[in-house]
Amino acid sequence: MNPSSLKGIHIEGSQDHVASNQSGIQMFVIAKSGKFAVRTNDVQVNANTYLRIPVKSTADVVTVVANGGYYHFKIGGKAATSNTTTYTATSSDVSKGYVELAATATSYIYSIKVVQNNAGSSSSSTTQTGSQTSTTKATAKWDFANVNPSSLRGLTIEGKQGRIPSTLDGITIYCIAQYGKFAQRTNDAQFNAKTALRVPVTTTSDVVTVTSATGYHNYNVGGVAATADVTNHTATAAEVSAGYVVIYATGSSYLKSISVVLNKYSAPSSSSSSSDDNKTDNSTESSGSFTAVSQNYYVVKAGSASSFLAALKQANASKSSGRKYIFLPNGTYDLGTTCLTAITGNNISIIGQSMDKTIIRNAPDVANEGIGTTATLLNQGQNTYLQDLTLKNALNYYNATSAGRAVCLQDKGNNTICKNVRMLSYQDTYYSANRSGKFYFEGCDIHGTVDFICGGGDVFFNKCTLTVEKRTASGKGSCVIAAPYTESTWGYVFNDCKIVNYAESYSLGRAWGGKPRVAYINTTLGAPTKIIASRFTAQGMNVIADKFVEYRSVNSNGTVVSPSSNKVKFYQGSNSATKETIISSAAAKDYAIGNVFGSWKPYNDAAQLTLNTLSQNGNSIQWGKVSGASSYAIFKDGTLLTIVGSATTSYTITATGTYSVRASNPNGGFGTAKSLTVSSVGSSSSSSSSSSSTSTTGLSKYDANAPVGWGTVGGSITGSGDRNAVVVTTAADLVSAMSGTDAKTIYIKGTLTFDGQLSVNGAQNKTVYGLPGSVLINPTHTAVVKKTGILMIKNSKNIILRNITFKGSGAYDIDGEDNLTLQNSQYIWVDHCDFQDAVDGNFDCNNASDNICVTWCRFRYLKAPYAGGSGGSNDHRFSDLWGGSDKNTKDLGKLRTTFANCWWDEGCKERQPRVRFGQVHIVNCLYSSSVSNYCVGAAYRSNIYVENSAFTSANAQKTPWKVYATAKGYTDYNITVKGCYGAADVQQRSGNIAYFIPSAYYKLTAYPASEVKAEVSAHAGATMNISAPSAKAKAAAWGETTTAINAAEADGATVVSTIYYSANGVRQHSLQHGLNIVKTHYSNGKTTVRKVMVK
């Protein structure tokens, strides 16, 4: 046995490196669903085990010698045909760094040898014209503590492979994290178990130095366990031959830095062609083009497999933590013989147009047969969502003799949802390959013959059809539906499902492994006489059944056909146990979905949305906004025209025909279509656009489309008067455009990403519109306060914000920044904005801000809160704080605000709003959060008037308001509640502050509370149909608070580039804290220069 370290190695249900007889050369073994066990004179390699044998040249040769005919494996994708198999590495293998041996059945191997040859200059050197490559000594460093290079920021490699850039040009670490994780954090890098880093080396004098956070050095360097926070390793000859030193995490580690002294470093030539390894993940071949509806939404070309694969590649590679949507129009997406097309990214939705006509198909060679080798789709991501499509594995089953395993979906992910998905195959059709996973099926149709629903985890099948196909082409033979391998609590639960049978007979299930569990609750049996006498197969494959149960199975007429008792003697080998399989109604209730999944409610995530109305108005079709919709798909005569964002509720038509519109749920699944036949197309009387105004449509009949309440007292809010238009596409552009006192109308286009709250100071006379589908987002969850929040407006006046979506990274109690903060700002109108998932407050107001008008805004939390923040609260979904401290006397007589037609939606816990000092009018607002602790908070010296609002959820009705003026010396407050739905009229106070009556200050007529739910839920949020003026107006002169280095005028135009400088003229990559000089180039050739102060 050579090397001796092989003795006793047993890898099963995991993965690890295995050393060779050459120092530093290791084989990587993946046995998550297989087994690698060294015996006395060979190694047992079971099916679904993968060996990655390192290669570095196309001249390298791998030789595998098997024991006595047990060569059931493929190497480099080719099946072994004899005891000795020789394989020469391909360029693809070299690019990956390994040749893969995949076991298709139990094999016994005597030896594996790789001869790593020097391929010579013809294949291993880089060809350059007119020069000779020179080398020098240089040090490459990965400084995780200081995030250097800066491209490390935000880098996460999890469930896949990737490269980690260094400070030295062209030098990267290759990270293998299929079952691990590497993630750059604020001042270190998280390095989880089962993650491997390949650090490049050039000579045996090269030294690799690894530094960890104190005590977190749970890794091997070059096969040797680290014993201190700083580990130095000199490259061996074998490692130089391989080209790298391996750092392998054996437990959770945190790295401060890695460096390598390279004695023969060759700087990359700028004229050299890039290898495949240097292609960006975002590259798309022209043959596989798709349409990007938005940053995370891709529409595939109908019936084009290459287009689908290109979109999937883009979604897999996305660094966005948000959901990525892929839409497949009706058509067949033929993957050929390709298997295991992988979903590796998290939060990916693949949505078809229809279950019957959207088909993803592959047809594996029979020689490739196997449960782990044939899948049409291989899911490795978290929170994958599939809807309205068919997965078809077209392996030639009836002519494959005993080799018929052909998987449609092999799921190694977690929290997968399949809604209206059909799976067409025969054996092992659906394979739940994560034994601790949770999976949900609703309205699906799964076809098969033998063990066609098999594997582990807790899987809930809700109202699905199980179609039992003929066992053989002749129709002879018996079939088995389920084969659970249960290591979790519930196993397979079939609830209200229907069995359709075409076989001679069938069994409900047989035991595979673990503690097998399956339950059939309220099942409809299409052919009840075809079920075998024992109903379940008594003999297990490897173990006996643990809990195989059935409750109230009926025939197609609804008559109960399951027996009152059915005791089965389950056995496997010499083990046996007799068990009752018929359970009582009380026991059946234990299998309720709430018990199976706990807090996860996938049925809500799969719920379908439907339009209430669809109508024609001249040359457009229009529909009402659907609450919760993430987008709308528009079809003409059954063919997709486009997909539009949730804020759009109309579409211009140019021809007659039948138009259909479908609303999608937050996961992208489209509900039932609402259709309209258009027989003629005329002019629209409601459409308009001019150079002096912005077109806005889709408003409620109660929408004044103007500031109301406190925004009209003692002054007015006019913003820019819709003059001097400019379009912005970056966060820096937005802040730059908002600066100064000149009148300017700013249109936000696309997704503007923030990595900390940016400040607009001293601005005046600005109107900011969010165009449909635009969003301001800070997506990164962090404990660093200055990296949280989105926008602060301070010391400003006469500002309008309309139709803007703000998205934070999730509530986290660290005293972080808000999505929007107002400080010492007056006459501000915030209208039709959507505030989501702020770290601290969705929208907070303090420091003597006054005359504030907030209308038709929506506040909500779509993400679960983060626990463990420094503030002590594990659920900080506290939406809006008006007044930051009882002791801030500057707020006396200020913070006067009108909230009209606003919606505190799902997830809002508290502060809806919580008020200090201000006279605040809350009129015709909607409270519907099911998790609300209280809605309106009456804190010190608050003067609140709640009028004709609707409290619709049970929690909101339980505590519509709460007193927070309780600290000694700070107990004065008053509140009036009048004419509301779900909250009693009341007038209450402490102290002698006069009750605030809005009608004494301004006129604002409230409509009945009974209409609030319908009106506000249909129109609140970023629901306006905004369009920018078609004509271009000239920008006004600079304001007195902004210094112009080069005072250039810019017509209303799109920003094409922005350059940032420090105060002393040094060029920067982005806005930095302090004073910045921002030079902006516009599409019309003009340039502006401004000073921008960042908090």
Keywords:
5 domains; 17-stranded mixed sheet; 6% helix; mainly beta; Pectate Lyase C-like; 1095 residues; 10 helices; globular; Jelly Rolls; eleven-stranded antiparallel sheet
If you had to describe this structure to a student in words, what would you say it looks like?
It is a single chain. The strands form 13 sheets. The protein has a 17-stranded mixed sheet that branches. The chain folds into five domains: 4-118, Jelly Rolls, CATH 2.60.120; 136-266, Jelly Rolls; 328-584, Single-stranded right-handed beta-helix, Pectin lyase-like (Pectate Lyase C-like, 3 Solenoid), CATH 2.160.20.10; 614-678, Immunoglobulins (Immunoglobulin-like); 713-894 and 925-942 and 950-960 and 1000-1027, no CATH class. The protein has 1095 residues and is mainly beta. It contains ten helices and 88 strands. It is globular.
Query: What percent of residues adopt helix (DSSP H or I)?
Result: under 10%
**Rough shape?**
globular
Q: What is the CATH homology-level superfamily of the largest domain?
A: Single-stranded right-handed beta-helix, Pectin lyase-like
Low-confidence regions:
118-134, 268-287, 683-693, 1030-1052
Structure summary, number of beta strands: 88
The total of helices stands at 10
Main pleated-sheet profile: 17 strands, mixed
What structural class is derived from the secondary structure elements? mainly beta
Q: Beta-strand percentage?
A: 35-45%
Number of separate domains: 5
- Mean pLDDT, to the nearest integer, reads 87
**What is the correct CATH architecture of the largest domain?**
3 Solenoid
Rg calculated over all Cα atoms = 32 Å
Report how far apart the termini are: 65 Å
CATH class of the largest domain: Mainly Beta
In the CATH hierarchy, the third-tier topology of the largest domain is known as Pectate Lyase C-like
